[in-house]
Amino acid sequence: MKIRILIPLLLSNAIVFGQKASGPGYAGEGEKVSVVTTAENSPFRLTPTATLSFAPFGQPFEDQPCVFVDPSQTFQAFAGIGGALTDASAETFAKLPPGQQEELLRAYYDPEQGIGYTLARTNINSCDFSSGMYTYVDEGDAELHTFSIGPDERFKIPFIKKAMAAAGGQLDLFVSPWSPPAWMKDNNSMLQGGKLKPEHYGTWANYFVKFIQAYEKAGIPVWGLSVQNEPMAKQTWESCIYTAQEEADFIKNHLGPALEKKGFSDKKLIAWDHNRDLLYQRAATYLSDPETARYIWGVGFHWYESWTGGHQYENVKRVAEAFPEKKLLLTEACNYPFSWETFGDWSWGERYGENMIHDFNNGAVAWTDWNVLLDETGGPNHVGNFCFAPVHARTEDGTLHYMNSYYYIGHFSKFIRPGARRIACSSSRAQLLATAFLNPDGSVAVVVMNPTEEKIGYRLYVGGQAVEAESLPHSIATLIY
Length: 481
Description:
The protein is α/β, with parallel strands linked by helices and 481 residues long.
């Protein structure tokens, strides 16, 4: 697909939105718009479905649905989209025939033949999506003399390296712990929450450093790290509890200085890494203290809302408004519980589309799905916490099966590239969800989602020019010009 590259002009040349305008991201009369669609009850899966042309269009009336795009209003820079390269994903990948392994890598990381993931996450020590529990040191070794990433060398490290190669050598990887070793915690277990003992704060900070050093020595650059996966969740699997102040103190007095001392100040340090419900309180606690805030690159959040009864997207916006110098990113999302009987439910993908549009519109710079690949059980998983991934493998016959969530994510990751800037995008119909980005190459990607049963005709309206488009029932489309 050839995308026209617009020659940048000074924004001062732009005329008031709604009249004729020019500049980066604006459309000229006759300019083409490529439409790519995924829709229920159709063969469309990231399928080119139309080529439209801009034409002058005056004042829209209330009975003329529109998606308005204003490139003169720019917001956060886009950092990337990706998924987690867990033990479960790596072990399942290793069971696939070579041809299906190559297919999966292309599907996720090739920007032309696949959906162009540029971001990844992996676990420090075991997590629920590991076949068993493990750490990298012997029990009681507070000096970390026995530290070894041996448990990762069979499956996970080779998988991460292949993913990075498939992404063209550039895949931003951040790393997250689910629990310190049991002997560092007050409940003497990696499971069921518990807390890091104060006397091991320094030990645990050095553990992060050892992990980063070992991975980079193995040829895997580490882009960033989160302090703790879900620090307010007592789980039946690996977990560890921190109050906001405890996490802030650990960052300020131990983890931040340990990273700085070893020359890792460039690593993106992500706090919270849990749900949107407590997002503002946690962010305010860390970021109101300059000595803590100076180490923090961003605040991560998950989409799970079992306690809240809603998505609470506005909490993302509140943090973006209060702390605009810090980044916001979704660090984990998945659908559950796993069942082959509900594998084809269209709602799985729509949940991704809705969350991604709202998170980006409220200030998120990146979005990271959970496991990139799971097997026919929704695992492997050592605690029975089975869930969906965008792609599943039936390991008994070596086949790959794609959920509609894969395609919904692809409508963002394939067409919005790192370095893009979100631009103003407004829908005149609640039934049409939309967001828009101006890419570094000058192309504009507008994502429009219709979660209703009705076909909706609308105009994509940019600075006095518009194209007439059609949103199919239960569909998502990306319009590129």
